[in-house]
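BUG-396 | component: ligand-complex export | severity: low

The export step for adenosine-5'-diphosphate jobs runs without errors, but we want the raw record kept on the ticket for reference. Input record follows.
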Amino acid sequence: MKILVINTGSSSVKFNLYESAGEKLLAKGLIERINAPDTHLNYSNHRGQKVEKEIAANSSEAAISEACLALMDKKTGVISNLTEIEGIGHRVVHGGATISGAVKVSAAIKQVILDCFSLAPLHNPPNYEGIEACEHLFPNVPMVAVFDTAFHQTMPSAAYTYAIPKDIADKNQIRRYGFHGTSHYFVAVTAAQVLGRDLDTLKLITAHLGNGCSITAVNCGKVVDTSMGLTPLEGLVMGTRCGDIDPAVVIFLSRLGYSLDEVDRLLNKGSGLLGLAGIGSNDMRDILKAIANGSAPAKLALDVFVHRLVKYVGAYAAVLNGFDALIFTAGIGENVAQVRAMVCEQLTYLGIHLDPALNKANALTISREGSLPAVLVIPTNEELMIARETLRVLMS
Ligand code: ADP
């Protein structure tokens, strides 16, 4: 059965086509700068063929049509007819407090996605548009929505409740939701396989360190706490987001004359590694280069990043009352041995001991034999998880 995974953003569409038997990735592509003069398609298939070209697409639907043409191309395509696609999985960022798993798309589910527009104004509207586009393009193909927030819905109320007046929180749906759920779930499931244990018996801490960063405590397959909150701004230091700060900073800045939009931009787009290192980049590779060249602000950026991470691992070790494995994933988690080493050096009190050679090699297990908890590096694969969940929902 062929499953198409669609991730529609505000100006981009990512698509992955899987053959579910053997979870084989047949082709993947990215269409960027939709509705701009230079809309661009980047495509590759399992035979190693690549296509890069300018295309015309002024809407999500036009972009997904282009994706279909790429998938059916005589030379570089992987299907001859769209009827070969038997299921479509959509990444949807926010499912609010009611969605706790992947679900078949229906009028009611579309309404839930619409109702969450105010909670994820940058993501849910394009995600919704992608679903409607596919309804037009694939009228008879069943679709599944896989939500970034769903895995986190098992959090107990003590973990998701903010200590603000309850009536105001309830009325305005203000609580911790958490994000990156599909990634945290994928690496938790994979970690259980690597450890040769049932996920239902494990206590895990999963650290997704990409441009956006979040960390999650998973007890027996259920999330018990996660660092992102009402929005993805809370928690760890990220590429351009500040993560945890005293909320009074917002009040302080606004009293100094900064508008709310300015503060929003400042904390979401101008902070984190970008704001601290002062080198005009939020890319960890550039931060590390700047440190090698003697930049003190870049060194401070890295130190603040690591310090926050160490604090969260300690907090989640307490929340879990001990844990079996710490898992690093996403761009920084998968590639930057120095960050993993700096974090783990501070966790020896928990019993963690890294093997420097394995760490340097980005091996699957980077802790020494006998290190309890174990430390793993697991490349995330949100698209594959969406394909799996789509298949599971359609088969149930
Ligand atoms: P996103 O959250 O956008 O999906 P990624 O998971 O791709 O991001 O992570 C992006 C970040 O990972 C980059 O900003 C960069 O700092 C870091 N990164 C990716 N690859 C490497 C690498 N090989 N070495 C160091 N850092 C890397």
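Assignee comment: Attached the raw record above. The pocket of adenosine-5'-diphosphate is lined by residues 210-212, 239, 282-285, 330-332, 335-336 (CB under 6 Å).
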